[in-house]
Automatic annotation (TrEMBL):
The chain crosses the membrane at residues 43-62, 68-85, 97-114, 134-150, 208-227. The lineage of its organism: Bacteria, Pseudomonadati, Pseudomonadota, Alphaproteobacteria, Rhodobacterales. It comes from the Bacteria. Gene3D superfamilies: Nucleotide cyclase. Residues 275-406 form the Guanylate cyclase domain. PROSITE patterns: GUANYLATE_CYCLASE_2 (PS50125). This is Adenylate/guanylate cyclase. Keywords: Membrane, Transmembrane, Transmembrane helix. GO terms for biological process: cyclic nucleotide biosynthetic process; intracellular signal transduction. One of its GO terms (molecular function) is adenylate cyclase activity.
Length: 460
């Protein structure tokens, strides 16, 4: 890095209106900041309108005269400018927004420093500073914390302190003291010079003016530091949201939840009894022959989207896509008391979804889709495989048997084939599997390729 670049970087660090840096490729960060800014501006404008309305009522109570309309005019200007700021506000540095914020503070300053043109009350200009009007700047500063970055909040504090200081210095320079007032107060309070100085109508009370801006700057810096911490937390949370979204591209919601809440939730290899489901489109090779590849891809997308939704809806884990099919597990990464029930319910729901989809396809003059589903319950080995690019693997006889049962749907002329082990487990978990097994037909001692002993299976 060159000296010029380093100096520029150090300078930008102290440029109070520079927006916080964030990863431009992180759409979640940008979206979070945009949402935060929009919501903050809405809250700030509403808070301003409420505060201005209450202030208007308070001013009538403090000054029940027609000349109070001057200050009501100032309040209306501030409300209108707040609306413009909301329209111009965006994430990043906006010159228009900064100009409107500057105009906001300038309107406030002039409204408090310039004598009321509608008042016929003759008083020294220094008396303008006896009403403690400076405290109203805290309303603008507090509302700024709802929408702006920490740098902008500190900038608002700096601009306010500068404008107010310049205002009272100019007023002190051009003010013409009313002759005799200071002398009369001093004579009345002879022997109490400090009290006479405090009550002198011609005195601008410089120490009080300095105290106002110093305290205001201290509050502005404190609020700015708090805003910086809040923005860092917001950006950090946006990063976590991005990481969680990236995980959800590869894992089902229950796996993402487990990954996000634990440091190494899937690392330990273990043996569990789970339900495994395979689903496949029957005759997809023939279906695809001669069709436009884009049409085939759209069919696969529609199929996968519908089946994936049913897996997740029944608390399953999408293990992998298998071309024109998929494999799902129920009981991973953590077993539940209803894994077999969920798997059986998912299989039936998949059949219903395919039927509804086929109804839509018939109406559109498109060929129907036929599927085969196999479900089994049994022991598997779970754990991460790989070194840097990890994959959560499910391996075991239950996986192989479920795949074989799915293949048997062709020879059995069935849409769903489930093992008796799954049925028995569902019966234990649900108390009664009558509804879930409605329509299933039992087949005893069926030979399943790759399985040593004949199996009892149920077909739908």
């Amino acid at each position: 890095m060159s000296d010029t670049t380093a100096s520029q970087s150090r300078f930008e660090r102290f440029f109070v209106t520079t927006p916080d840096r964030f990863d431009p490729d992180n759409k979640y960060t940008e979206a979070a900041l945009e949402r935060h800014k929009r919501e903050g501006l809405e809250l700030a404008v509403r808070a301003r309108w409420i505060a201005m309305a209450l202030t208007g009522v308070l001013l009538v109570f403090l000054n029940p005269n027609w000349d109070v309309m001057w200050y009501h005019f100032i309040l209306l200007l501030l409300c209108g400018n707040g609306w413009l700021i909301r329209r111009a506000g965006r994430v990043g540095q906006s010159r228009t927004e900064l100009l409107l914020i500057f105009a906001d503070l300038l309107i406030m300053t002039l409204g408090m420093v310039v004598p009321n043109p509608f008042s016929d009350d003759v008083r020294p200009l220094a008396m303008q500073y006896r009403f403690d009007n400076f405290q109203y700047f805290f309303i603008i500063l507090a509302a700024g914390t709802l929408a702006y970055s920490w740098r902008t909040v500190i900038a608002m504090g700096s601009w306010t302190a500068l404008m107010w200081t310049v205002g009272w210095i100019v007023a002190w320079w051009v003010a013409t003291p009313i002759p005799g007032l200071s002398e009369a107060v001093a004579a009345a309070l002879q022997g109490y010079p400090a009290v006479a100085e405090l009550l002198d109508p011609n005195s601008f009370m410089v120490p009080m003016r300095v105290q106002e801006v110093i305290v205001f700057m201290m509050v502005a810096v404190t609020l700015g530091v708090s805003m910086r911490r809040l923005n860092r937390l917001l950006i950090s949370n946006a990063g976590l949201e991005r990481e969680r979204a990236n995980l959800s591209r590869y894992f089902s919601p229950n796996v993402v939840e487990e990954l996000s809440q634990n440091d190494e939730p899937l690392k330990q290899v273990r043996k569990e009894n789970i339900a495994v489901l395979f689903i496949d489109i029957i005759g997809f090779t023939k279906f695809s022959a001669g069709r436009d590849p884009y049409e085939v891809i759209e069919v696969l997308r529609g199929f996968h989207a519908r089946m994936e939704a049913e897996v997740f809806h029944h608390h399953g884990t999408l293990d992998k896509y298998l071309g024109d099919g998929l494999m799902a597990t129920f009981g991973t990464p953590v077993p539940t008391p209803l894994d077999a029930v969920n798997a059986l319910s998912c299989a039936r729901s998949m059949v219903d979804i395919i039927d509804r989809w086929n109804l839509e396809r018939r109406r559109a003059g498109e060929q129907e889709i036929q599927v085969g589903i196999g479900v089994h319950y049994g022991p598997v080995v779970l754990g991460d495989i790989g070194a840097n690019r990890l994959e959560f693997a499910v391996i075991g006889d239950a996986v192989n048997v479920a795949a074989k049962l799915e293949a048997m749907t062709r020879e059995m002329g069935a849409r769903v084939v489930v093992s008796d082990e799954l049925r028995e487990q569902a019966l234990q978990q649900a108390g009664s599997a009558a509804d879930l097994m409605a329509g299933f037909v039992r087949h005893d001692r069926q030979v399943v390729r790759g399985v040593d002993q004949p199996m009892t299976i149920w077909t739908l």
